Amino acid sequence: MNTDSIDDLIFENVCFSYKDKFNKKEIIRNFSCKIKKGKFTSIIGPSGSGKTSLLKLISGIIKYKKGVIKFENETLKQKLRDISLVQQSASLMPWLNVYQNIELGNINKKSEKSHKINKIIKDVGLQEYIKFFPYQLSGGLLQRVAIARALIFQPKLLLLDEPFAALDNLSRETISTELISIIKKEAVTVIMVTHSIEEAALLSDEILVTGLAPINVVKSFIPPISKNCESWQKIGLRKSLEDRSFHKYLKSIRDTSYQALQKEI
Predict the structure, then answer these.
(1) When you count CB atoms within 10 A of the terminal residue's CB, does the N or C end of the chain come out lower?
(2) In Å, how far are 5, 161, 200, 219 from 33, measured between CA atoms?
(3) What is the sign, positive or negative, of the torsion defined by CA atoms of 82, 60, 161, 264?
(4) pTM of the predicted protein model
(5) Could you tell me which of 34, 32, 149 has the C-alpha nearest to residue 85?
(6) For 132-149, how does the pLDDT look when each residue is reduced to its tens digit (9 = 90+)?
(7) pLDDT score, position 1
(8) What's the mean pLDDT when you consider all of the chain?
């Protein structure tokens, strides 16, 4: 096994279930998978399949029952400070303004603090809003703050759980493309859970399609190369949809998703 493969995010026979006095729900059973380091990977699957639970296991919010999860050849317990999770709800502190909310994630020395925060604020387009409070911001701006806060933490592994789901379609396309460009410049490993096949196809280096719980990877997809060798993200969704190879790629992902769901139902 080469070093690059060892450094990937690796799941080995991971198990997780919810249990109360009356019911037990098996979410993850003997799940094994590798997610490539330094890549942007999207996970698509039906609601309740365990996608969000998978992110919560990686971030340490919930604990798995059996198995091993490693990143950069170390256990999660050793890597938690290198992992950030951005959820569908921005989860900002309502009594803090934009600058103060982003500042919460800062781990730099005081001398580097202001420069790093101001750079992130400029990168995500929040210069005009640094003194605004969360209640004064739109959904798109709230997610900008949440992602800025996650990036200021300087993670090696960034987890995105439906980060743009609350936005309207036009805002979602514009903001997701813009913010993912910024995230990719940080050269971090990214895992995004989404229900949008178009969004995943446009932004991802690899897509994992899952079935119903207990979660399993039905098939993985790697995007085709565009005619001018530019990324689909840079080309944009509307122009990408005019390309036959991209359109075929979307259809393959969609067909696989439907077939997996129908088979398990």
Answers:
(1) N
(2) 12, 19, 19, 11
(3) positive
(4) 0.89
(5) 149
(6) 999 999 988 998 899 899
(7) 43
(8) 87
- Find all residues with CB under 8 Å of 75, minimum gap 6, and list them: 68, 69
Amino acid (one-letter) located at 251: K
Q: Tell me the one-letter amino acid at 118.
A: N
Question: How far is Cα 28 from Cα 57, in angstroms, rounded to an integer?
Answer: 10
DSSP string, 15-81: EEEEE-SS-EEEEEEEEEEEE-TTSEEEEE--TTSSHHHHHHHHHTSS--SEEEEEETTEEHHHHGG
Structure tokens at 74: 């170390």
Q: How far apart are CA 254 and CA 134, in angstroms?
A: 36
Structure tokens at 259: 């077939």
Which letter, b or e, does each residue of 145-159 get, where b requires 16 or more Cβ atoms within 10 Å of its Cβ? bbbbbbbbbbbbbbb
Q: How far is CA 114 from CA 4, 35, 110, 187, in A?
A: 34, 34, 7, 22
Can you tell me the distance from the alpha carbon of 91 to that of 98, in angstroms, rounded to the nearest whole number?
Answer: 12
> What does the pLDDT read at residue 3?
47
Residues 50 and 213 sit within 8 Å (Cβ to Cβ): yes
Q: Give the tokens for residue 260.
A: 């997996």
Report the distance separating Cα 11 and Cα 32, nearest Å: 5
- Single out the residue of 111, 93, 110 nearest to residue 102, CA to CA: 93
Q: Above 70 in pLDDT, residue 108?
A: no
Q: CB under 8 Å to 168, separation ≥6 — which residues?
A: none
pLDDT at 206 over 80: yes
Radius of gyration of the chain (CA): 19
